Amino acid sequence: MAYAFDFASVLEYREVLVDGTLKTLALTAIGTFFGLAVGILGAVSRAWKLAPFDRFFTVYVELIRNTPFLVQLFFIFFGLPSLGVQINEWQAAILAMVINLGAYTTEIIRAGIEATPKGQIEAAQSLAMGRAQIFRHVVLPPALLKVWPAICSQVVIVMLGSSVCSQIAAEELTFAANFIQSRNFRAFETYFVVTGMYFLLAIAVRQVMIQAGQRLIARRVK
Amino acid sequence: MALVHIDALHKHFGSNHVLKGIDLDIEEGQVIALIGRSGSGKSTLLRTINGLESFDDGCIEVDGERIHPHETDLRALRQKVGMVFQQFNLFPHLTAGQNVMLATRIVKKMPDAEARDLAKAMLLKVGLQDKFDAYPDQLSGGQQQRVAIARALAMQPRVLLCDEITSALDPELVNEVLAVVKNLAAEGITLIMVTHEMRFAREVGDKLVFMYQGRIHEAGDPQELFANPQTPELASFIGSIN
User: Fold this and answer.
1) C-alpha dihedral over B187, B188, B194, B196, to 10 degrees?
2) Residue B79 belongs to a domain with what CATH number?
3) Do B103 and A129 touch (CB under 8 A)?
4) pLDDT value for A217
5) Which residues of chain B does A127 touch, with a Cβ-Cβ cutoff of 8 Å?
6) Distances in Å between the alpha carbon of B163 and those of B5, B34, B242?
């Protein structure tokens, strides 16, 4: 039996799709910015054994890497209000993404920091640079550069993972898809289109990340 | 008063007693050549002078800045003591000019334009004025080492420590680095160098210090010591080199 495709019924909702896409991108951008900040702090704490933060980050990383993202999201969204912290679906989604990406990038960036040749640090010390200055100017830029491809991949993973935020009614792209197919009853076409959109988004985000890395930390385009 | 004063310095690496009571005075403008077999403690001694190695007993004083065993705040000392390493250790993500400027900008808080001018002057001093914008991986080993010397000099240290600075270089690149050091010596910069370049030590050094098993075994005028070593250990060391 032949299936009659009806993409027009999906395109009717293009504004919903665009809106969902923008929200997915916004979630990813904010999550990446703060997630990387957490990752850098976690990485230096662990690599340089800055007590007591190193222990905190060790537990945090293990906790996040060994539990599902959806459960982390529910934990935040349903758990925090029970503790008296009022939080909406967007705040919960962003917090979950930051916490999740922060844990993975802690480990990625730590590898970069630990690959710093000891002589580089000694040279900086001999120039009377302080610990924070050495980290900021001598250790961090080459470390980020070395692990940037892994960071780009992790950001794409987190962006794709943000689809589960639809489960707490954050109206991102997957939420938009659910909404559309519940109205037009064209689940196949709707998910066909949304799958393609995620695919293109992932490629675009990766390219933007690679370019950003070269602009912000790489010394030159090779 | 000596510029560098080292008094009864002891250091252990675990159960290994590597410096067994070093006393050494270095006057301003002197060029000291530290020689000895590997494991004799010469590099360790050099590294204690700017705090890259801690020590267990004794005292080091550089230009009035006194450090004690297990001192942790060494930044004041390190402003007075520059160091050049065997492996150059340039910062790979920065250009030659940025390598030289970095510490003057962030440690001495020098304004950008002034730091840039100083960096240019220092690169000129080592003959690399045209390499300001080159990255370390675009330079030869000898050029990298000369940038490292310029980087140390930009901080205007009272003493410059050189730790086997030609040992990692191809033979044909050794002379360009030694020529720079020779010029510095002629300008009156105080230099303490661990070296295997005996001819250079003899020509340029004001004082030769021979280390043997964690002690200063013999010290004095390089010409005299090379001609008439007073101990069999130095004689055998000189013999093994030549």
Assistant:
1) 50
2) 3.40.50.300
3) yes
4) 77
5) 78, 82, 102-103, 107, 151-152, 155
6) 19, 9, 21
B189 Cβ contact list (under 8 Å, min separation 6): B29, B153, B160
* CA–CA dist A69, B172 (Å, integer): 59
Pick the residue from chain B with its C-alpha nearest to A121.
B89
Lookup result for tokens 């060790």? A58
CB contact under 8 A, A117 and B89: yes
Do residue B75 and residue A130 have CB atoms under 8 angstroms apart? yes
pLDDT for residue B1: 77
* Strand B190-194 to B31-35 pairing: parallel
Chain A residue nearest residue B81, CA to CA: A126
Interface A-B, measured as beta-carbon pairs within 8 A, has a size of 70
Query: Could you report the average pLDDT of every consecutive run of 10 residues in chain A (222 residues)?
Result: 86 95 97 98 96 96 97 95 93 97 98 96 96 95 94 97 94 95 93 96 96 76 36
* Separation in Å, CA of B210 to nearest CA in chain A: 25
Residue A106 Cα, gap to closest chain B Cα (Å): 22
Cβ distance of A126 and B78 shorter than 8 Å: yes
Say what the pTM is.
0.89
CB contact under 8 A, A123 and B90: yes
CB B149 within 8 A of CB B73: no
Do B176 and B188 meet the contact criterion of CB atoms below 8 Å apart? no
Q: Cβ separation of B79 and A122 shorter than 8 Å? A: no
CA distances from A22 to A14, A30, A169 (A): 12, 12, 16
User: How much is the ipTM here?
Assistant: 0.93
Q: pLDDT tens-digit profile of B18-75?
A: 999 999 999 999 999 999 998 899 999 999 999 999 999 999 999 988 888 887 788 8
C-alpha to C-alpha distance for B138 and B32, rounded to whole angstroms = 32
> What single string gives the DSSP state of each residue in A51-91?
TTHHHHHHHHHHHHHTS-HHHHHHHHHHHHHHTT----HHH
Contacts of B94 in chain A (CB under 8 A): 219
Q: What residue spans of B126-227 are helical by DSSP H? A: 141-154, 171-187, 198-204, 222-227
User: Of B165, B191, B170, which Cα lies nearest the Cα of B86?
Assistant: B165
Q: Which domains does chain A have, with CATH numbers?
A: 8-221 (1.10.3720.10)
Domain that includes residue B192, residue range: 4-241
For residue B170, the SS3 value is coil
Tell me which of B52, B79, B91 to substitute to probe the interface with A (most A C-beta atoms closer than 10 Å). Answer: B91
How many structural domains compose chain B?
A: 1
CA distance B207 to B34: 9
